[in-house]
User: Which sequence fits this backbone?
């Protein structure tokens, strides 16, 4: 596998990424590709990014993983994650990848975990260039997601947002809060938070996520295929978020809830997750040939 560190521009900012091309591809051979998005305040080097990229590369897909603005080595105010800006980053990454000599520009999919999953769904729902979408441990309604994540502490979270708005009105800048005040992660899972991840963030980030509703555009992905994955006992993001997205989606969309894994299902290298993704790719977004699943559905109707 050949890896190349690259840069591309998104709204005037230079973003850093890595393109991986599977072994054995000819100089002018074009393959389908995936953009794999990292999670909340993380980087392209996280296990939840590296593991699916390696899997996809072994199956014959080109991959692009990159640091969102404000994360990793990309430009932008550190820790300032504004969901619609990450959507723009992804769309600009797609434009970059369309010009890669080994990529079929009409067959570029997006995949992501958690925060990256929400961005992937919104990108696919608003950009027809996206050929397919995979969401792992994602969410579609920011307000309901936070309510489920914070539980009894939800009123304090809403108070934090209110204080943040008042602080910005008074000072003209955003109040800084801990990432765990935005997205609580149990101690048992914090080992998956990559060293170098952003630990303090502007409260504007929390407000942006609160207002973000990828579920409103998921139906617009069809007839392009979507795969929704979630742990049945996710300790971070309520699995009901993925169920809500599935209910609002259109065929061809599949949903799988897994026991025996948690929020970081790709980093955990769960074999059943791997098998489900591999089978779905074969039927709905194959490296070569016709997508059998979509053909069968069309014949059924």
Assistant:
């Amino acid at each position: 596998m050949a890896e190349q560190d690259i840069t591309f521009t998104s709204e005037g900012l230079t973003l850093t990424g890595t393109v991986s091309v599977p072994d054995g591809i000819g100089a002018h051979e074009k393959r389908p590709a995936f953009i794999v998005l990292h999670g909340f305040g993380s980087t392209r080097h996280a296990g939840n990014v590296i593991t699916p990229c390696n899997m996809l590369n072994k199956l014959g897909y080109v991959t692009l993983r990159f640091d969102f603005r404000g994360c990793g080595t990309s430009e932008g105010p550190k820790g300032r994650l504004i969901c619609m800006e990450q959507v723009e980053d992804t769309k600009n990454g797609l434009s970059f990848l369309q010009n890669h000599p080994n990529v079929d520009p009409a067959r570029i999919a997006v995949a992501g975990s958690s925060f990256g999953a929400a961005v992937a769904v919104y990108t696919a729902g608003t950009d027809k260039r996206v050929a397919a979408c995979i969401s792992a441990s994602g969410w579609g309604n920011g307000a309901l997601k936070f309510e489920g994540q914070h539980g009894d502490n939800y009123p304090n979270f809403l108070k934090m947002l209110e204080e943040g708005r008042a602080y910005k009105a008074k000072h003209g800048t955003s109040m800084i809060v801990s990432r765990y005040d935005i997205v609580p992660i149990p101690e048992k899972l914090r080992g998956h938070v990559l060293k170098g991840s952003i630990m303090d963030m502007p409260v504007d980030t929390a407000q942006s996520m609160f207002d973000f509703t990828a579920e409103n555009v998921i139906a617009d992905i069809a007839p392009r295929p979507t795969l929704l994955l979630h742990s049945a006992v996710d300790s971070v993001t309520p699995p009901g978020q993925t169920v809500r997205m599935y209910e609002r989606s259109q065929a061809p969309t599949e949903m799988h809830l897994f026991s025996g894994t948690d929020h970081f299902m790709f980093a955990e290298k769960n074999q059943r997750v791997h098998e489900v993704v591999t089978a779905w790719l074969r039927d709905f977004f194959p490296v070569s040939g016709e997508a059998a699943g979509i053909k069968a559905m069309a014949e059924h109707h």
Remarks:
- The chain has a mean pLDDT of 92.
- Residues 182 and 218 are 24 Å apart (CA to CA).
- Residues 2-142+213-300 form a domain with the Rossmann fold fold (CATH 3.40.50.1820).
